[in-house]
Amino acid sequence: MTGMKTPPVTPRWVKVFGIVALAVTVLVIIALLTGGHGPGRHGA
Amino acid sequence: MMPPGWRKAALATHVIGSVGWIGAVAGFLALALAGTTMYPALELMGRWVLVPLSLASLVSGLVLSLGTRWGLMRHYWVLSKLFINLLATAILLEYTQTLRLMVLSPAAVPVMSPILHASAALILLTIAVILAVYKPRGLTRYGWRRTHAAKGGGTSKGAPGWSQP
Prior knowledge:
The complex is a heterodimer of chains A (about 45) and B (about 160). Chain A is mainly α and about 45 residues long. Helix content of chain A is about 50%, strand content about 0%. Chain B is mostly helical. Chain B starts with a helix and ends in a 14-residue tail after the last helix.
């Protein structure tokens, strides 16, 4: 790795983490925007 | 770079905040499993224990990363921890409104709600601790450029001489 001219390849664990993080974020945003989740909307 | 004394103080705050947060969430989960009679306790715990610990963890983590050679954007594991911390804190702050509602109108909130939220928080915070302990390799492009420039063309595989939780 020493003396590399190009940036190192993104590790696999980062790719997996990124995909899961993106999916979780999207799910949270969708849940909040659709009104099916959040304070005062439970049980609605 | 921070002086060693400040660095250790920030590190101690970060350990206390982060590990305390996990312990508090575990306690919260146990109370949530006990049922709706515990809702007032959950609300108190959320407001006076979980929120302060989460903010202490977040702020001390930012101070530690920005005040040391680890940096905030140089290593993927630091970035990943930041994401987890921000996400968990944001959801917690949002959930404090639900906790208040649980006290005022317990029937308005499904019994599973605090259980699911606490379980998700436990998973997230456990992943953060694992990242902190194992510090998996991986420089971001920004980190690689900074390291490359500092070393005059080489990259550093060595970590800064201290351990961040």
